[in-house]
Write a structure and sequence with these properties.
37% of the residues lie in helices and 10% in strands. The model has no long low-confidence stretch (mean pLDDT 94). It is an alpha/beta fold. The structure holds thiamine diphosphate (TPP) and magnesium ion.
Length: 292
């Protein structure tokens, strides 16, 4: 069993990652914050502890695969990849610019290390399923991880993949649900309403664990901000790679995690921090970099 100290480096990387996300978005004038923050601890665990990767050789055939199906959180993935050595941290400043490798949503034709392009919600899990199936047919032993959002779970194509993966007995596939309980806007405006309704996801009273299990997934529910739960869950999923059951990790997370005024606020789905806010953020995250 690992102690808390074991996860301190991961926690520090995640805080630095959050800082780079929010300051990069502020620098480029647009981008997402809430989703990258909720997914940060999970992605840091994947890239720094669980996945077998070679940043200097991004197309290494035996690498584990990661697909960020909730592609609007791209700046979170780019940041973790930069910290891991796939690209210079300095390059984050080009985020969302015309000729940049770091487009607003992941573009596989631009940045080596990405497995597919995402951003149109709903598609990444089917791509991951295809990659996992291909690996098994070719006798390759890498693992494929796909992260989806709770809002994204409303997409029909996600459910097609959720139905099919257990039938193909893809133990080498793991879905991570970043269940932060919020999406972008909420429901359509009803007559008499001034706001667009309830911003929560629609899964609150739904027994998702039971549904996933009945579909045939091995389901683990964790706190998506507790490294002592995240790392063992991801490692267990990987260890069951040659089994005949895919894994689904339900990660309970907080949108905007790490900064008090962003936590649990749908407004921070995509928002540009002001200079004053950045100063508060830097202090809260305990980072020393200068404000942009
Ligand atoms: C097919 C499609 N429909 C709508 C959007 C616009 N959109 C971007 S993010 C988002 C909300 C996603 O919510 P969730 O999956 O919960 O992500 P998170 O909370 O992690 O940001 C929406 C509707 C999109 N990118 N793709
Ligand atoms: Mg969400």
């Amino acid at each position: 069993m690992s102690g808390e100290a074991d996860f301190k480096p991961l926690a520090e990387l995640a805080q630095r990652g959050r800082w780079l996300v929010i300051s990069t978005v502020a620098g480029s004038g647009a981008g997402h914050v809430g989703g990258p923050f909720s997914a940060m601890d999970l992605m840091v665990s994947l890239y720094f502890r669980v996945m077998k990767v070679r940043p200097e050789e991004p197309h290494w055939p035996e690498r584990d695969r990661f697909i960020l199906s909730k592609g609007h959180s791209a700046i979170g993935q780019y940041t973790v990849m930069a910290l891991r050595g796939y690209l210079p941290v300095e390059e984050l400043k080009t985020f969302d610019k015309g000729r940049s490798r770091l487009q607003g949503h992941p573009d596989v034709t631009k940045l080596p290390g990405l497995e597919t392009s995402t951003g149109s919600l709903g598609q990444g899990l089917s791509v991951g399923l295809g990659i996992a199936l291909g690996a098994r047919l070719r006798g390759q032993h890498f693992h494929t991880f796909v992260m989806i959002g709770d809002g994204e779970l409303q997409e029909g194509m996600i459910w097609e993949a959720l139905h099919v993966a257990p039938r193909y007995k893809l133990g080498n596939l793991t879905t991570i649900l970043d269940w932060n309980g919020l999406q972008q806007f909420g429901w359509l405006l009803r007559p008499g309403q001034k706001h667009r309704g309830d911003r929560r996801d629609p899964w609150d009273s739904v027994d998702l664990k039971g549904i996933f299990e009945r579909l045939g997934w091995r389901v683990q529910e964790i706190d998506g901000h507790d490294f002592s739960q995240i790392v063992p869950a991801l490692e267990a999923a990987k260890a069951s790679g040659s089994s005949d059951q895919p894994t689904l990790i339900i990660a309970r997370t907080v949108k905007g995690k790490g900064v008090h005024f962003a936590e649990g606020k749908h407004e921070w789905h995509s928002k540009v921090a002001t200079k004053e806010e950045l100063n508060i953020v830097a202090a809260e995250l305990g980072v020393e970099e200068a404000v942009l």
